[in-house]
Amino acid sequence: MKSKHSKYNSRNPISNFLVHHFLNNIVDILKTMEFSNLLEVGCGEGMILKKLKSLIHNKNAYAIDIDMDEIKDAKKNAPYCKISQANASNLPFRDNCFDLILCCEVLEHLDSPELALNEIKRVAKKSIIISVPNEPLWSILNMLRGAYWQDFGNTPGHLNKWRPEQIVNIINRYTNVEIVKKPIPWTLLQCNIKNS
What is the model's pLDDT at position 57? Predict the structure, then answer.
């Protein structure tokens, strides 16, 4: 049986390279930032938090996910984080309380990503890092590897598809996009909170 987390433990060396390159891009961004606390929205099984261990183990690190099975895995992978169940569209935190918010590979799964973006903006004090699949590249690469042909390469559960310029325009409504990176096949954004 194939693991639902196969992108992190794939036997395919190309997939492994791409995922590690993506994670290393996130690490590189965080190395340039100053923050005392952070929240990962939609932490899944905690693999990003695990990769960031050396940068966040002494910070006040929080994470949420909606799936209890994912949360159990995340607690094993990132025991230095406070992880709980919550919905990205209704975050159980006060306004402006996190220096840094991570929201990686989440927005494409949501019926209403704008609700989550409003909540992320509400609880963020300084910076946000967001990633989504870079379309149509993501779907093309899926098809080239023989996956999801019946859905033209669309990964199950992906409700939204954005080209890099589209997601930048959307995110700029909520924050200031400062840096755009494109580690294949993702779009990765470093954003600063707009002063209101």
Answer: 87
C-alpha 33/C-alpha 169 separation (Å) is: 23
Q: How far is CA 127 from CA 30, 36, 155, in A?
A: 10, 12, 29
Query: Quick one: DSSP state of residue 140?
Result: H
Report the topology of domain 15-193: Rossmann fold (3.40.50)
**Statement: the pTM of the whole predicted model exceeds 0.90:** yes
Q: What is the pLDDT of residues 8-23, one digit of tens each?
A: 666 677 888 999 999 9
Where are the chain's structural domains?
15-193
Give me the count of residues in the chain.
196
C-beta of residue 39 within 8 angstroms of C-beta of residue 102? yes
* Residue 90: Cβ-neighbour burial (10 angstroms; 0-12, 13-18, 19+): exposed
